[in-house]
Each structure stands twice: as structure tokens, then as C-alpha cells.
Amino acid sequence: MYSWDDPDDRVAIAQMNAELRHVQLDLLGARCSTDRLRLRFSVENLAQHAERDLLRKAIGHAVALSDYYLSIQKEIPEDGMPLSESQFLLAVECVSGYLWEQRDAFLRVGRFLSDTEKETLHPFFSYSLLERVRLVELRGRRLPLPPFYQKAKAMGIANLPEMTHMASLTFVDVIVFNEQVSERALFHGLVHVAQMQILGLERYTDLFVRSFLRTQAHFNVPLERQAFTLEARFAAHPSEPFPVEEQIRLWLRERRY
Predict the structure, then answer these.
(1) Domain range holding 56?
(2) Which strands form 174-177's sheet, in the order they lie side by side?
(3) 1 within a domain of the structure (yes/no)
(4) Nearby residues of 190 by Cβ (< 8 Å), 6 or more positions away
(5) CB proximity list for 112: less than 8 A, separation 6 or greater
(6) Pick from 80, 159, 179, 207: most CB atoms within 10 A?
(7) Which of 24, 55, 75 corresponds to the end of one domain?
(8) What's the domain count of the chain?
(9) Which of 213 and 33 is assigned the larger pLDDT?
(10) 112, part of any domain
(11) pLDDT given for residue 229 in this prediction
(12) Positive or negative: CA dihedral 29, 167, 243, 257
């Protein structure tokens, strides 16, 4: 491990940070290119019509970079949670209560998965899970921000997830789509259903809130990162099944949440 007390180490640290600045610029360029791609073409069109080799290589590079930088993030000393333990427990209670309330509100208007959807997704999810999930399409409407967002912002919690910009949100076993149901957004939502089912809602919420408060970034929460990773794997190789619920249990055993 480097030490600022060693002159040679100080030179190496300076070189490391200089290279990191170059990497930051390169990654910013890659992000801008990806944003242009995202704005022009839908996920479904890319998954179905992009050259397979190009798409697989792009996904492979992105996943490798994500894994590398997230492994570094885990080693960064924590600054401490911005909330006291009592405030944290209250935050977990607010989030889990909100998830249950929304679940109950949308359950009665949700539809079950179609036979076609079940046939497509059964190689990835257990049939018992697919049988209980309900889907809701808002079609032109957007979910309002949760009532506790204003209080959270007043407490200094920033970068709260922009729910109105998300394709779907999962409330226990009900997936609500801000627009229409898409295959990829449905897969993402089902990953969260499986996570909540295996972990239990209280533990899921505890892990999610704790990780979010530590990283201050929705996409860096391991539960969310896993959902995006598995979603991307499904989109790239829809004909190559893998058991999502086993992946969740594996991450749980390895304490990756």
C-alpha cells in the first residue's frame, strides 16, 4: 500500500491521479456517446437489430468497467451514514410502508402476465413467481414523488431516485410502468420482485436504504446494480436462460448486497 511518507510513493500517487483524470475524460466521452445512442434508439430496437458482435462487446466492456470501479468503491473508507440510527430506522419504515401502500393501491387494477409473457420469462424466473405478479400501465400518467421525499431533502439527502423518469417501479409483487410494458423493463421489475421475495421486504428495504445513503447514487445500490446487470444479460442473450432467483441467492451468500 502506498504511503505519503515515502517519496517514491508520492510520485506514484501523482502519476496514478494524472492517469485517473485521463480515464475520467475518456469515460465522459463514452457516456456522451451512450447518451446519444439512448436518445436515438430504443432498448428494444438495439437488442433486436444491432449487430450481435458489436452489442456483446459493448456490453462486455461496460460490465467489466462497472465491476472494476465498483470493486474500488467498496474499498473507499466510508464517511459515515448521514443519519442517526433512529433516523435510519425511520427512513426504512417510511420506504417499506410506501412500497406496501402502493402495492395495495395498484393490486386491484393490475393484470396478470399473459401466457406469452410467461412463456418468454419462465426460463429465467420460477413459475410460482410469474403467477403472482401483477402489471399496471399508467399510459401518459406518471407516479408522483413519494411523500417522504421532501423531508429527506430537508435532511440533506441528495440524488433521490427520479421515479418519474424510470420505465417501471416494483411494489412488492406489483410492477407499475410509467408508459407501456416493454419486455426489458418487465424483466428488470421481475428481478426486484424476486429480490423482495427472497430477502423479505424489510431486509430488502434496509439494504437498499443503507446502500443508497452510503453511495448517494441509486445506480450504485447493489440491489439495483444486479437488476440492471441481469436485465442487460437477458437483452443481449434472450435465448440463453439463467435462473435469476439463484443469482440472487448467490449474491446473498457472498454478501454482495
Answers:
(1) 7-75
(2) 111-112, 134-137, 174-177, 168-171
(3) no
(4) 121, 124, 125, 129, 130, 133, 175, 244
(5) 131, 133, 134, 135
(6) 207
(7) 75
(8) 2
(9) 213
(10) yes
(11) 93
(12) positive
